[in-house]
Design a protein that fits this description.
The chain is of the alpha/beta class and about 475 residues long. The chain contains 13 helices and 13 strands. Strands 1, 2, 3, 4, 5, 6, 7 and 8 form an eight-stranded mixed sheet that branches. A five-stranded parallel sheet has the order 10-9-11-12-13, with helices on both faces. The structure holds 2-acetamido-2-deoxy-beta-D-glucopyranose (6 copies). One 2-acetamido-2-deoxy-beta-D-glucopyranose binds near residues 413, 439, 441 and 442.
Length: about 475
């Protein structure tokens, strides 16, 4: 085992070694043998319970203990529980043996535990469950710098590790391989909990615990946490385990825990859309968004950026799309800078939007707040296609997951050449945040054809397909 000695092997003092196994049976000289045998039987019994018990494992446990020659007194049972308590084994949250395939299969996060997998459904762990004998999840997980110093264990409710605190209610434990402050990655890791919420009679958490590479995180992008607040109907309480300090290493166990480490992985497109439908509906309720203005047939919204990946000539770009919109009766163009809109202002804006036009960037996550079938037009600076890797397609993915229509991307052919011809990484760091130009001809044709499609699509659409936001938003 290559787990770190410091945390995983620290256990309580061996105080009960001499008090057990004496009351009911006359022990011969081979005390030691019986001692060993007793421990063996104990684990056999535990194994049996784990295999077969469905209700409280402790009812069976009592019966077996009462019939056993090994134990007859209450003291002895306490002694046994104490041994179980000491036998709880903490393993590192981040298992360095799987560094090379951190996100495959059981992943390097809680690598000894497997997820529940049903066809088309979100993959998750839930504790306690029968398969692990009704044990609770416990964490020693305060470290914010190295996930292999944090650890986890499963423990029976009556034999929690020494000095453990038990937290009541449902705890969501999230693993995010990237960054909770990146809206796309934050949303992607959080949507799996919404999927669990949908399949679990709308159960909501008491608290959230966030990990990145096994390191504790205590905040996320405000856009994402407000969306979660709207979705789950209450403030998002992120656990920080107190400021504790180094010696405050006591374990924390959870009455009910749900662990997610695969984002939307394994979910069917239907299930994914269900999740985004729910979030959209709850966000609109939370922000008290009324119906749409009947006079507006097509709402076109340009989400603008300041600084990085902004337009070289914003007024020129706005002018082109404005002109196309003006040609269509009932079309209205709105130009917005999301960074100075509140969450609810964004929700209101997007609920009246049929076409969103924007540079690649976090503000595009707002697309999920449009009605289903909304159109997305995405713009990139020079160099991305060749050098940006798969990350450049995240808004294509988000569009398909949330039931939107990605209308393609425009890639600026113009820009400074890279001064490091054979160094893609250095070129990309230059291109990443470059400004975006425009092509009048292309933008006019593209804008006009997307707006026409929207009009056609909406004429065919059954208006009842877009139900107003109400009640539980389809979660039962
Ligand atoms: C439990 O807490 C007590 C008092 O803080 C401490 O002395 C003891 O070492 C702790 N036990 C374990 C196993 O951490
Ligand atoms: C086992 O014995 C204890 C105390 O001797 C008693 O409280 C408990 O009810 C018994 N359990 C069963 C299942 O008989
Ligand atoms: C931006 O575009 C407008 C309209 O095409 C043009 O009049 C203006 O000169 C441009 N501004 C710059 C700085 O190029
Ligand atoms: C919003 O942001 C834009 C661009 O940064 C700025 O010009 C504008 O003044 C801001 N508006 C408000 C109301 O803060
Ligand atoms: C602008 O777009 C048009 C239409 O797609 C294309 O024919 C033309 O080559 C583009 N111009 C530039 C400078 O890329
Ligand atoms: C979205 O469009 C598809 C076909 O393009 C249509 O079948 C579906 O009903 C539309 N959904 C909504 C909610 O309008």
């Amino acid at each position: 085992m290559d787990r770190p000695e410091k945390k995983a092997t620290r256990s309580s003092p061996q105080k009960s070694n001499n008090q057990s196994f004496s009351s009911g049976c006359s022990l011969s000289s081979s005390k030691l043998l019986i001692h060993a045998l007793a421990v063996f039987v104990l684990f056999l019994v535990v194994w049996q319970i784990q295999q077969t018990s469905s209700a409280s494992p402790w009812a069976r446990w009592d019966k077996i203990l009462n019939n056993s020659c090994l134990t007859t007194s209450h003291d002895t049972r306490e002694g046994m529980a104490d041994r179980l308590r000491q036998a709880v084994t903490f393993l590192p949250l981040k298992d360095l043996r799987y560094t090379g395939e951190a996100m495959k299969g059981h992943t390097w996060f809680m690598s000894s535990l497997y997820d529940m997998q049903e066809q088309g459904e979100v993959q998750y762990q839930q504790h306690p469950v029968e398969a692990t004998g009704g044990r609770l999840l416990c964490l020693r997980g305060r470290d914010r710098h190295d996930g292999s110093w944090n650890s986890y264990a499963l423990a029976w409710p009556d034999a929690l590790p020494q000095n453990a605190t038990l937290k009541a209610g449902i705890t969501f434990v999230s693993y995010n391989h990237y960054d909770y402050h990146n809206i796309w990655h934050g949303l992607s890791s959080m949507m799996s909990f919404v999927a669990w919420h949908v399949k679990s009679q709308c159960a909501a958490p008491e608290r959230w615990i966030l990990y990145h590479w096994g390191e504790l995180r205590t905040s996320m992008a405000p856009w994402v946490s407000t969306l979660l607040e709207a979705t789950f109907g209450g403030a998002v309480k992120i656990e920080d385990f107190g400021s504790g300090g180094d010696d405050d290493d006591a374990p924390v166990c959870f009455e009910k825990a749900v662990v997610m480490r695969h984002n939307e992985g394994g979910m069917s497109s239907e299930k994914r859309m269900q999740v985004y439908d729910l979030m959209r509906c709850r966000a609109r309720l939370y922000c008290q968004v009324g119906g749409r203005d009947g006079g507006i047939k097509v709402g076109v919204t340009m989400l603008m950026r300041d600084g990085t990946r902004s337009f070289r000539n914003a007024s020129a770009v706005v002018g082109i799309f404005e002109e196309e919109c003006r040609r269509v009766p009932g079309c209205r163009l709105t130009v917005a800078y999301p960074h100075n809109l509140t969450f609810c202002e964004q929700v209101k804006l997007m609920s009246g939007t049929d076409v969103v036009i924007s540079a690649h960037g976090a503000q595009l996550s707002n697309m999920i707040l449009m009605d289903r079938n909304g159109s997305v037009m995405e713009l990139f600076p020079k160099g991305w296609k060749e050098m940006a890797g798969v990350g450049q397609y995240v808004y294509h993915w988000l569009a398909s997951w949330s039931g939107m229509k990605h209308e393609g991307a425009w890639r600026d052919p113009v820009g400074d050449p890279c001064p490091f011809p054979n160094d893609e990484a250095r070129c990309m760091s230059l291109f990443k945040d470059a400004k975006i130009g425009h092509n009048h001809t292309y933008f006019s044709q593209w804008g006009s054809s997307v707006i026409k499609d929207v009009i056609t699509r909406k004429a065919l659409q059954d208006p009842s397909a877009l139900k107003p936001a109400a009640g539980l938003c389809g979660c039962h």
